[in-house]
Structure formats: C-alpha cells, structure tokens
C-alpha cells in the first residue's frame, strides 16, 4: 500500500465515521422523540415504549448507514440488520458495565462516565459494523 493509498483510506474512514456518527445522533434524537410520543402522548407502558423506540432508532441507524455510508456489504437486509442489532446490544452492555465501573470504582460522575462510554461504544460500533457487517475495512 502506497502512502497516497493510505492517506485516501484514512480520509475515507474519517468521512465514513463522521457520516455514521451524524446518522447515529439523528436516530438517537428520533428515538427519544418516539419515546415521548409512545409513553407520554399515547400512554404505552414505559418498558414497551423504550423497546420500540430503541428498536426503531437502531433500525433507522442501520438503514441510514447502509444507504448513505457503507452500502450493503453483500448481505441481505435481514442479515445485515441482525448483525447491526447484535453489535448495538453489545454496545449497550459496554456502556452499562463501563459506566458502572467508572462510577462505582473510579468515583466518576455518572453523566461524564456515560458520555465517555458512549463515545467509546460509538467508535466500537462503527469499526465492528465497518469490518464485520458491511465489510468495508
């Protein structure tokens, strides 16, 4: 790999990460709005509203990433979505465990711990999806 190819690869990965992150932020905002609609306006039980809003937000993130960032990676939509959801659930576990450890054992503020773990999980999500789901790196 030449120096020029490496530079192009890094630039492409950086651009993809930015797009992936923007789609993720938009879908997070959408899922919070949907939670409000389902729970506050429609009176759905909170645990059902959380599951539905999370699931629809994650699905939106997957489709946005598939259409706007990575392409299909040679996978069918159901298989790609399954991979995406497995990675998202692993990220949720990473966020939960990491935040708990930082708060309980390092004395971190819960909000800063959650933000930090969210950033780490977002990077993990991007690279796992880019490598194993969409197979672009």
General description of the model:
The protein is mainly α and 137 residues long. The protein is built from 4 helices and no strands. The chain has helices spanning 3-41, 46-70, 77-106, 110-133. The mean pLDDT is 89.
Features:
137 residues; mainly alpha; 86% helix; 0% strand
How would you summarize this macromolecular structure in one to three sentences?
The chain has 137 residues and is an all-alpha fold.
Largest sheet descriptor? none
Spatial extent as radius of gyration: 17 Å
The structure class reads: mainly alpha
Unreliable stretches: none
Strand content: under 5%
State the shape: globular
Number of strands: 0
Helical segment count: 4
Distance between the termini: 14 Å
């Amino acid at each position: 790999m030449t120096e020029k190819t490496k530079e192009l690869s890094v630039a492409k990965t950086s651009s993809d990460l930015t797009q992936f992150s923007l789609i993720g932020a938009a879908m997070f905002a959408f899922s919070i709005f949907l939670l409000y609609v389902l729970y506050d306006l429609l009176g759905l039980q909170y645990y059902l509203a959380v599951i539905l809003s999370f699931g629809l937000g994650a699905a939106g993130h997957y489709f946005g990433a598939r259409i706007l960032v990575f392409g299909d990676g040679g996978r069918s939509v159901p298989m790609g979505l399954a991979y995406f959801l497995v990675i998202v659930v692993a990220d949720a576990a990473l966020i939960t465990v990491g935040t708990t450890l930082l708060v309980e054992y390092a004395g971190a503020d819960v909000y800063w711990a959650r933000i930090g773990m969210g950033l780490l999980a977002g990077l993990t999500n991007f690279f796992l999806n880019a490598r194993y789901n969409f197979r672009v790196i």
